[in-house]
Write a structure and sequence with these properties.
- The protein is α+β, with helices and mostly antiparallel strands and 125 residues long.
- It is 22% helix and 40% strand.
- Strand 3 and strand 4 form a beta hairpin.
């Protein structure tokens, strides 16, 4: 969870996950669903279709009651892109499902799913 929320090199992240998995082992990665982001874009954020990144400002309240604003940047994906990036990382994509945080299951992705969940396998050889 959160692997792609850092706006870093997404392919590099999946390659690292692949190296960490045992040969034949599964990799599960969640990422924001671009269709959800576009359908539910609020006034607190912006989406750049050129970079496929969603940027929003959130308020976080500390234990002492102080409030700070933070800018969060997320890479967003289509289900097809999730499979492509897995292939590019040397993994074998099994499926991509539409999910809600904490409500993981095997659902066909729609614009009502905030996240996509990728299952891929590290090749055995």
């Amino acid at each position: 969870e959160g692997a792609f929320g850092l706006a870093l090199d997404d392919l590099k992240i999946l390659k690292g996950m692949g190296r960490a998995a045992k040969p034949g082992g599964s990799i599960i990665a969640a990422a924001p669903n671009v269709f959800f982001v576009v359908a539910h874009l609020g006034s607190s954020g912006s989406f750049d279709p050129a970079t496929m990144r969603y940027v929003e400002t959130v308020e976080v309240t500390g234990a002492d009651g102080s409030v700070q604003e933070f800018e969060l940047t997320n890479s967003c994906f289509t289900p097809r892109e999730m499979a492509w990036i897995a292939n590019g990382a040397g993994l074998d994509p099994v499926d991509v499902w539409g999910v809600t945080p904490g409500g993981y299951g095997r659902h066909r992705p729609t614009s009502d799913h905030p996240e996509l969940l990728l299952k891929a396998l590290r090749p055995k050889s």
